[in-house]
């Protein structure tokens, strides 16, 4: 097995930064939407349930966007391959 390269390290760092950005965005959105009572040190059950629902919805939305992006990429790749094959057969 080859030792990790600088490129691998950069890719891992970029992935980790992307994860942290997504996590921070999720935390900020759900906190802003769900936590409204600052008069007590305890988290109310309604706030906790709202946060859980918010997190679940955000994760499902993120997963769905990723799936649609992958589908789009596959279609774009297939179109590019078909166009390249068409150009290759025409130029002969």
From TrEMBL:
Keywords: Chaperone, Disulfide bond, Membrane, Metal-binding, Mitochondrion, Mitochondrion inner membrane, Protein transport, Translocation, Transport, Zinc
Presence of keyword Chaperone: yes
Membrane topology: Peripheral membrane protein
InterPro entries per record: Mito_inner_translocase_sub, Tim10-like, Tim10-like_dom_sf
Gene Ontology biological process terms from the UniProt entry: protein transport
GO molecular function, one term: metal ion binding
Record-annotated Tim10-like domain positions: 12-71
Listed Pfam families: zf-Tim10_DDP
This protein's domain notes: The twin CX3C motif contains 4 conserved Cys residues that form 2 disulfide bonds in the mitochondrial intermembrane space.
Function: Mitochondrial intermembrane chaperone that participates in the import and insertion of some multi-pass transmembrane proteins into the mitochondrial inner membrane. Also required for the transfer of beta-barrel precursors from the TOM complex to the sorting and assembly machinery (SAM complex) of the outer membrane. Acts as a chaperone-like protein that protects the hydrophobic precursors from aggregation and guide them through the mitochondrial intermembrane space.
Family in the record: Belongs to the small Tim family.
Subunit architecture: Heterohexamer.
Protein's recorded name: Mitochondrial import inner membrane translocase subunit
Gene name tied to this protein: LOC113201691
């Amino acid at each position: 097995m080859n030792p990790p390269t600088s490129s691998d390290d950069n890719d891992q760092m970029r992935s980790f930064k992307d994860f942290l950005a997504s996590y921070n965005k999720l935390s900020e959105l759900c906190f802003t939407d769900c936590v409204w009572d600052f008069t007590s040190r305890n988290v109310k059950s309604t706030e906790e349930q709202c946060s859980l629902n918010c997190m679940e919805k955000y994760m499902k939305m993120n997963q769905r966007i990723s799936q649609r992006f992958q589908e789009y990429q596959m279609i774009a790749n297939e179109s590019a391959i078909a166009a390249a094959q068409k150009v290759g057969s025409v130029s002969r």
